[in-house]
Amino acid sequence: MALRLLYLLVLGAVILRESCFGASSHSMKFFYTGISEPSQGQPHFFTLGFVDDQLFSSYDSNSRKKQPRVSWMEKVGQEDPQYWDRETQKVRGHEEVFREGLEILRSRYNQSEGLHTWQEMYGCELQRDGSKGGFDQYGYEGRTFITFDKETLTWVAPDPLAQITQRNWDADLGWSQGNKVYLEEICIEWLEKLLSYGKETLLRTETPVVMMSSRTELEDGMETHVCQIHGFYPREIDASWRRDGEVWLEDTFHKSVAPNVDGTYHYWLSVQINPKERDRYRCHVEHDGLQKPLDLELKEPTKSKYNLGLIIGCVVMAALVLVGLIAGILVFIKRRQDDYEAAPTSDKGSNSSDQGSNQAV
Asked: What's the pLDDT tens digit per position in 107-121?
């Protein structure tokens, strides 16, 4: 149960995190996390691999095995029977590097024993126009520790104490070059391979269902309209309020795209308007599951105060729950971002989707 909670928290972070890529087409990301003194039942080290937002592989220090997390990943083992054993042995080596990295960092920051975290996040992206992207970054104790600049083959360290690591890693140019090759070539090759394995799930489209709700503000007579979009896949969606055909941002509010339990997504956005101008506004939705964009008209709010309050209450409650979940996720991930002070390995053979980390701090 504790390990499953970790998976869910990181999954939430994968979905919410857009700082590296923004809106993406398809991506493969890995999370390596070390914890110095985890709570009872939690592993002190675990790795998670995601294609888009789907967990496809994992390893933790309790099971000591790297294993598939979706049925379509079994195709890898069928093509290469030694794949999972080889990956398990490799990640066990990374586990030891994480242990050492945590001790080095705790000493470097003059910290006492207790809960400390060290994490690496890295991956690649393949956009619809064929362009590619990649990133590799580390964090310690909720702060960015060091980030790889693959264009200059250098490491960027905002923290003065991280500059010790920066000098060590910049000195190993061959390792940095290998890291760049992994992010720009091998990672993309594996992403394309995994997309072909899981195409029934990862390349499917689900048509969004769009609904409108509204209420009248008792204080000033203004109207609030909520455009709710449910059950769509893939995650990318273009939804906006339009006034006279133009995107309208004034007096609008929206939440982040969020997952449903069935693997689809939901999203909503609201706008406050003068009821005399209701006919000028539309909820505009574009998605791969739609043959053409939708433009929904605004309707006169219902007169039932109870129903209106219930609708808005549900929306607000959902937002509060999401905010609480996001806060928990971000605290958890931030704590673990800085957990991992070991850098990626220079062994980046194409028989592995995961580059791992073997470089000392």
From this structure: 999 998 889 999 999
